[in-house]
């Protein structure tokens, strides 16, 4: 798993109506504290940045050379004539902090009132869910919700394309386990003629998606076990990122059968697993995985806002090939190729 550089811009990563002028703060590791080479760009435009001593960071990261960062920006002035990202679904701030060979981008959502103050009427802001929903789906609200979602969406498209499938006009595509619609919000602006649907057990996330992303797709709450509210053989593609990695085994088989039901013959299901032998896990989990190829960690930490069964599940590649082949052809299994933590699984309905 790739690790981010030791650098940060401070949260919260959202700008309200009154933040047309804003002061960014943070810190970064540097090669030389006496001659730091630190930059900050806002959506590609260089911003004036000052550095200052911030030795308290070494309380958490002993031995590093570090400098604090501060930059005050008048957005209307700095961003005049900028690309407003409407083709990507709306505008958001992308602040790139650089230090010598290091760089990291932090996203800041902006309010509709901020958009009017900085750019006038017309352009839309990118819809970004509140921090607690980001944490529920991505594990953190660290200023990278959209970028990681776009990367995952592009990877899912590439996997489908490798199997001969391309998104096209009139197709029906389902994101099963969509959360607040992160993948659909990345895909829909690029494929406006595709009909996207999202389903999830998280009623709060679905309510947010229905309110904020209604022009990108149709979202529905699904029960803990089948059925889904869709007809047989209706979808041309289903993707399901980080869902089977949280289910007990009986739920897994029930949902595989249900997703097969709503897929067209020959259509693809792109999903993910976690390989138990790629992680440092408790002995009992490793023993389960070695014995059967599947391990469900039933006393792993619960996720706030989700059912108690939503824990952690691990699958070996051999298990998937043996047990997921009922009703599907297993086309390919990747290796830590989605979100740097999960293995992609590409299935074709038979």
Can you characterise this structure?
By secondary structure, the chain is of the alpha/beta class. The protein has two domains: 7-126, Immunoglobulin-like (Sandwich); 142-349, Vaccinia Virus protein VP39 (Rossmann fold, 3-Layer(aba) Sandwich). Helix content is 24%, strand content 29%. It has helices at 75-78, 112-119, 131-138, 145-162, 182-187, 203-212, 249-262, 283-292, 317-323; strands spanning 7-9, 14-15, 21-29, 38-42, 45-46, 50-52, 66-74, 93-99, 102-110, 172-176, 195-200, 218-221, 235-240, 263-273, 294-297, 312-315, 328-333, 343-349. The strands form four sheets. It has a seven-stranded mixed sheet with strand order 12-11-10-13-14-18-17, sandwiched between helices. Strands 2-9-8-4-5 form a five-stranded mixed sheet. The protein is globular and about 60 Å long. The model has no long low-confidence stretch (mean pLDDT 96).
List the helices and strands and how they pair.
Blueprint: E1 7-9, E2 14-15, E3 21-29, E4 38-42, E5 45-46, E6 50-52, E7 66-74, H1 75-78, E8 93-99, E9 102-110, H2 112-119, H3 131-138, H4 145-162, E10 172-176, H5 182-187, E11 195-200, H6 203-212, E12 218-221, E13 235-240, H7 249-262, E14 263-273, H8 283-292, E15 294-297, E16 312-315, H9 317-323, E17 328-333, E18 343-349
Parallel strand pairs: 2-9, 10-11, 10-13, 11-12, 13-14
Antiparallel strand pairs: 1-3, 3-7, 4-5, 4-8, 6-7, 8-9, 14-18, 15-16, 17-18
List keywords for this structure.
single chain; 350 residues; alpha/beta; Immunoglobulin-like; Rossmann fold; seven-stranded mixed beta sheet
């Amino acid at each position: 798993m790739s690790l981010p550089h030791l650098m940060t811009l401070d949260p919260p990563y959202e700008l309200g109506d009154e933040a047309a002028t804003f002061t960014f703060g943070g810190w970064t590791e540097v090669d030389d504290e006496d001659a730091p080479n630190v930059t900050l760009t806002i959506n590609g435009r260089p911003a004036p940045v000052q550095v200052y001593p911030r030795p308290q960071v070494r309380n958490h990261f002993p031995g590093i050379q570090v400098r604090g960062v501060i930059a005050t920006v008048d957005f209307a002035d700095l961003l005049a004539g900028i690309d407003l990202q409407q083709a990507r679904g709306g505008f958001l701030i992308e602040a790139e902090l650089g230090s010598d060979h290091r760089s990291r981008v932090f996203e800041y959502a902006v309010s509709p009132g901020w958009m009017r103050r900085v750019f006038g009427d017309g352009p839309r802001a990118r819809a970004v869910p509140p921090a607690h929903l980001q944490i529920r789906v991505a594990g953190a609200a660290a200023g990278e919700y959209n970028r990681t979602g776009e990367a995952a969406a592009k990877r899912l498209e590439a996997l489908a394309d490798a199997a001969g499938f391309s998104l096209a006009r009139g197709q029906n595509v389902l994101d099963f386990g969509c959360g607040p619609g992160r993948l659909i919000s990345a895909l829909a602006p690029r494929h406006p003629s595709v009909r996207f649907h999202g389903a999830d057990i998280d009623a709060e996330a679905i309510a947010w998606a229905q309110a904020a992303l209604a022009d990108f797709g149709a979202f529905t709450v699904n029960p803990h076990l089948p059925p889904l509210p869709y007809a047989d053989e209706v979808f041309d593609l289903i993707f399901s990122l980080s869902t089977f990695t949280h289910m007990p085994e009986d739920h897994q088989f029930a949902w595989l059968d249900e997703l097969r039901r709503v897929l067209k013959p020959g259509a693809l299901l792109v999903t993910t697993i976690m390989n138990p032998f790629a992680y440092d896990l408790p002995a009992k989990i490793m023993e389960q995985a070695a014995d059967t190829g599947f391990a469900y960690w039933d006393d792993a930490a619960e996720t706030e806002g989700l059912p108690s069964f939503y824990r952690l599940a691990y699958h070996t590649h051999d298990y998937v090939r043996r047990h997921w082949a009922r009703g599907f052809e297993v086309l390919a299994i990747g290796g830590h190729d989605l979100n740097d933590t999960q293995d992609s699984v590409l299935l074709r309905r038979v």
